Amino acid sequence: MTKAWEELQSLQPLVLQIISNSIMRDRVAHAYLFEGQRGTGKLKASILFAKSLFCKVSTNGVPCDHCVNCKRIENKNHPDVHIIEPEGLSIKKDQIRALQEEFSKTGVESTKKFYIIVDADKMTVNAANSLLKFLEEPQSDTTAVLITEQIHRILPTIISRCQTLSFKPLPNFVIKKRLIAEGISDEVAALVANLTNNLDEALQIAQDEWFAQARKIVLKLYDVLRKKSLQGMVQLQENFFLHFKEKPHIDRALDLLLLIYKDLLYIGINHDELAFPDYKSEWEAQALHLSTNRLSEQMTLVLDAKRKLNANMNTQLLMEELVLKLQGGYTFV
C-alpha cells in the first residue's frame, strides 16, 4: 500500500473503503460528489481515485503510485484525466461545454475518461444546467468527481445523480501530530490544532511569526486581567492594538482568549486535551478560584464580542467593553 493511500486512509477510512470496493467489484458510478470541509482530502482522494482506475498494476483498487499512468496523473498531464477549476470566481458554461466535447471523444490511451470539477458549487446556473445534461445521459467508462465545501449550493438535481461521499473534519490530535512531525513545537501545535481542521492552513498559521507574537500578547492580556485589574486598558493600548490592527486580527485574538477560558474549564474537570498545555501547571492553581459558572460566563462574553465584531462594532470600544466585563469575578492574587 502506498504512503499517499495509507495517509488518506487514516484520515478518511470510509471514503477510501467505498472507492476501493467499487473498483474491485467493477461497480464504479458514473458520478461522485465529494463534500466536506476544506482541507479534508477531497482533491487528494479524487487524484487517488483516478490513479486507481488507470494504474497498470493496482492491487485491490490501490494504485502503485509508480507506473507511468500514476505519475502522469500526479503531474496533471494524463490525456484522459481532466481537472476543471473556477476561472476567476466561477466555473463558466464554456468550461463545461469544452468538457462535454471531451466526453464525446474516445479516450486517447484507453476507453476510460475521468473528470474532476473542483469547487463545483461555483458553477454558474448555465454551467450547472449544462453539466446536468451529461449526468442525465452518462457516457460509458466515464467517471466524474464533483468537489464541494458547500453542498447546499449544488443543484438538488445534480446531487440526485451523484453518489455522495462525505469527508469528515480532521480530528485535533491528527492535526497536532502532523504539525509536530513538521518540526512545530508541542505547545504551538496544540493551539493551532484547536483553531483549524485544515492541515495546510494549520501549517501556515504555525509557521507565522505574527501568530507566535499574537499568542504571547493574548496570554499577557489574560494574565493582566487576572492579576492587575487597573492595567487592562493600559495593556490594550500599549500592546494589544499595536499588534491586532484589523478586524480578522481581533477575531483571532478573541479565538485565543476563548481557548484560555476553555482550558481553565477543562482543567477543572480533569480534561487533558488543552490548547495551552505548557500553562497547565500554572493554571491549575488559578482554576481553584474560578467556578464553572463564572468560566462559562466569560466564554459567553468572548463569544458575544465575536458576534459584535462581525456586526461591525467599533473594535476599540468592543475590546474595552470586553476587558471591563472579564475583570469581574476574579480573586486577585
TrEMBL record:
The keyword Transferase applies. Keywords: Nucleotidyltransferase, Transferase. GO terms for molecular function: DNA-directed DNA polymerase activity. The keyword Nucleus does not apply. It comes from the Bacteria. Pfam families: DNA_pol3_delta2. Its EC number is 2.7.7.7. This is DNA polymerase III subunit delta. It comes from Bacillus spongiae. The lineage of its organism: Bacteria, Bacillati, Bacillota, Bacilli, Bacillales.
